[in-house]
Each structure stands twice: as structure tokens, then as C-alpha cells.
Design goal:
By secondary structure, the protein is α/β, with parallel strands linked by helices. It is built from eight helices and five strands. The protein binds P1-(adenosine-5'-P5-(uridine-5')pentaphosphate and magnesium ion (MG).
Amino acid sequence: AEKAKLQVIFVLGGPGSGKGTQCSKLVEEFGLLHLSAGDLLRAHMKSGTPDGNMVAEMIAQGQIVPSRVTISLLEEAMLKGGKQQVLIDGFPRNEENRAAFEAQTGIEPEFVLFFNCPEAVMEKRLLGRQEGRTDDNIETIRKRFKVFVESSMPIISFYDAKGRVRKIDADRCPEEVYADVRPLVQALQR
Ligand code: UP5
Ligand code: MG
């Protein structure tokens, strides 16, 4: 039998734009594999290896971890997950991430979900979150916003130029946002 081709959706948007929240809803309805690069890196932080310590430091500073680390975590999780459809949440974050992922895996995304949200709204959400993340303090939040604008927005522009971006107004309640997200992913189901 022919091996089914992996279908990847990149889920991008600023810190606190609702990537994780919307991915959970998609998993619940469609059963695809959800890989949050940030969650994988936070788990890796706890490994106590030199790489793990570097990751902890970079996350606390809101900096982008080298793709070597992130891509190996994503590849391992994709293999282990064993699903045909994969949501990659919070990656690629810069040109280095994007180019390395494409070169190493040969995967191009079906499309890019882009959650567009004003910074003031994202800031309020992140400050309200009670998960104890080392980067949910106002100083690091401001650094994360700056990195998003300078390094991650160009990736969205890159895919937009290829007609691959599906832009969603994320400044609404989760259910209203999902009403726009759902049909995009539904269209990939057979
Ligand atoms: N919330 C969600 N949706 C809402 C809505 N519609 N209305 C009102 N409230 C809403 O949501 C954030 C909060 O808002 C929650 O409390 C939620 O209930 C509420 P969430 O769904 O968690 O938003 P999300 O976009 O996932 O926010 P997150 O903080 O996870 O985004 P980041 O992009 O900042 O975090 P990530 O985990 O992707 O990355 C963290 C760090 O890891 C990066 O800064 C970087 O240092 C490192 N990293 C890399 O180096 N490389 C990578 O590839 C990935 C990460
Ligand atoms: Mg998240």
C-alpha cells in the first residue's frame, strides 16, 4: 500500500494569540497530532543536559532556540505520533527555523494558520495565565513581542507571498475564533 503523505499545518501568531487553545479544539474534533514546539522545548529543559540548560536560558529570555534542537524534537514526536495530519504550533519562528525544517524534512505546509491579535490583548492574556511559565513576566513578554515582530512576522510574509496564509482575527472569544478555523481544517479531511 502507498504510504500516506504527511500533511502539516503550521500554526503561527504572537505570544498569547491563542495557538494552543485553538489546536486543542482541533485535536478534539479531528484527532490530528498537535505538536507545540514550545511544549516540546519546555519538556526538554527538564532533561538536565547541556542542551536542556541552554533551552531554559533562551526561553527565559524570549529568544529563539537553534533549529537543530527544535527540529530533532519535532521529528521524533512526528514519528512517535504516527498520524498523517500534524499541527505544528509555534514553529517555524525565523528564517533559520523555516529553511532548516524544509531542507531536513522535505515537508512544506499545506497552509499556515495565522492568529492575528493586538499586542495589548495578548499581553493581558499572558499576564492572566497561571501556569508558572518562566517567560510569563512583563519583561520577557515584551522581548517575546519584539522577537515575534522582527523574526517571526517575516516567515508569515514569506508564506503569504505563496498564497499559503489563512489569517484569522484572534481578538474574539475562543468559540468565535474556532468557527473560522474549523472549516479550514475540515477541508483536509476525507
Ligand atoms: N486565551 C486563548 N485564546 C483566548 C481567546 N480567544 N480569548 C480570551 N483568552 C484566550 O492562550 C494564552 C492565554 O490566553 C491562555 O490563558 C488562554 O486560556 C487564553 P494560548 O492558547 O496558550 O496562546 P498561545 O498562542 O499558545 O500562547 P503561548 O504563550 O504558548 O505562545 P508563545 O508563542 O509565546 O509560546 P511558545 O510556547 O510557542 O514558545 C515559548 C518560547 O519557546 C519562545 O519564546 C521561544 O523562546 C521558545 N521557542 C523556540 O525557541 N522555538 C520554537 O520553535 C518554539 C518556541
Ligand atoms: Mg502555546
